[in-house]
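Incident review: delayed structure delivery

Summary: a single-chain prediction request sat in the queue longer than the usual turnaround. Root cause was a stuck worker, restarted by the on-call engineer. No data loss occurred. The affected request and its eventual output are reproduced below so the record is complete for anyone auditing the incident later.

Affected input:
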Amino acid sequence: MNDFPVRTLRIGTRSSPMALAQVDQVSALLRKHEPELGIEVVPVTTEADKWHGSLAELGGKGSFVKQIDQMVRHGEVDMAVHCLKDVPGDVPMPQGLVFAAHLERDDARDVLVFPEGSDHRTLDDLPPGAQVGSSAVRRKAQINRVRPDLNVVHLRGTVGTRLEKLDGRRKTDTPLDAMVVAVAGLRRIGLSHRGRQVFEADAMLPAVGAGVLGLECRQDDEPVARLVGRLNHDRTMTEATAERVMLHDLRGHCNSPIAGHCVTDPDGQLSLRGMVFSPDGSRLVHAHVRGGRDNDPAAMGARAAADLLRQGARDIIEGIPH
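Output delivered after worker restart:
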């Protein structure tokens, strides 16, 4: 333990099975660098986890991270593990906190899941009027564009809880015929085999920050920042920067039907696609920018947002009629 003081690293996290699995992943990576590192996991059931209504009433997905951020700020824990897609894009980071590392991006795509025993395999297999569960406005809008005859219903809860509702093992207001979840979410809880139709980015553009875990700590805690920084994946950080600058400039939040995904092409050029939809999918604006000579991710994000705003993204986000 030459590079880290002899103390236990306290990691704050949500208490869901997926969040705890993510902390296990981070802990294993940290111990590759510091085999004797003591780690204490501090699970928290946030206000958003307890809330069964619309997240919009609590201030959006940021409610999942807000309470844990305060614990980091106040020194109750040393660091936090956040799904980057849950971190608000329309407000700055809490004062004194930084993302010291972004782990290499997991699969960013979405996948269609059917009830246990179903013979269906794709969206096309569903009959008109079928009920498709989703936790994201972004998914609902994109499904509605290709299958306006389906009824996309809002579904809250952990991935495991949503699967129980899909399989009829947990009470729900409406029986579900299918559900869309993140590929990475299924993998992290060991249920990848439940996925049927994986949607490529061209068919369903992912959420900003999809598949990325951000490791947050206090800016002035140099030993933790230095240790955690060793896990940073430069390409993922660069791509996520482009996506999040776009989201920030659009003043987007979790209830905004915004999608954004940046990749690094084989020639090293960054390629960022962004979309803003009306919730029913009837209106859409799309931007696609490449890095150019400077290949600057922040500049790309700003260019993509400006292009979307010129096309009317603000009216779509605010729900102003066309």
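Verification: The longest strand covers residues 270-277.
Action items: add queue-age alerting; document worker restart procedure.
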